[in-house]
Amino acid sequence: MALSLVGCALKEQQSAKVYGRYVPERKDDFAWENEYAAFRMYGAALKPENPSNGVDLWLKNSPALVVDTMYGRELKDHRPYHINYDGNLDCYKVAHTCGAGGLVVLTADGENYRTWIGGPYDRYEILEQTPDRFVFRLEYDSLLVAGQILRESLTITAEAGQLQNKAEVVLELTQSYHLSPITFHLLVGGGIYLHDTVDYYMTIPEVGYVFYEEDALSDKQAAQMNYEYNGSTSQGRIQISVKTPGATLTDIVDGNLVAVRPYQLGDTLTYYFGATWSEWHN
User: pTM for this structure?
Assistant: First the structure.
């Protein structure tokens, strides 16, 4: 019976199309993937490096699961995952930005907007994990927005066969640096950081959709590492999309392509984000 159960577990793991986990061996990362792309978000152990609550993107050229392979290659084999060895690659730079579909919070003063980006998550919880579906929640205790400290609760659902992840966001006021909490107009949704130059982008305001495409080696360090390893100056192109139903602003703000809508503290806002690579094949 024990052998049969082990066999069933191995078969389920091998047939999984969606996967994710907490990664304590890499400074509290939280990583997940489906057939089309892998993603990660940064945890508390990375705070000295000033990370954001943005989304990092890992490219994969097939449906095979790669998260554990890439971490093992980087941490155990000391082969940087910024180099494309065998069809998967971490070449996307997040720094302190919303990254590839992360949360964007804007405050509005007339037609002028300011973007607020948070730091790493404080807690995580895995809510559901099957071969075809992975749901988890990240909690952020201190998102600074216009002199207010907000708590961010972010629930992400990744499913097999879906190009986009589902993100459900709740923001609540926890502290104010003012004598009394001020009121401010918030716009909240998903965003895409445009790096140094604006390549190709598209907006469809009617459905709250934004799309961005760039050279996969837009980061100079990743470009140099790949060139030194295999002499290549090209690793294809990245496509990233965000959809925020009901978005009232789909435009470039502070170097981010955003799809945001008016938001009241305590409400649940849902948006979708995802990415693909021109080198992907089935």
Answer: 0.92
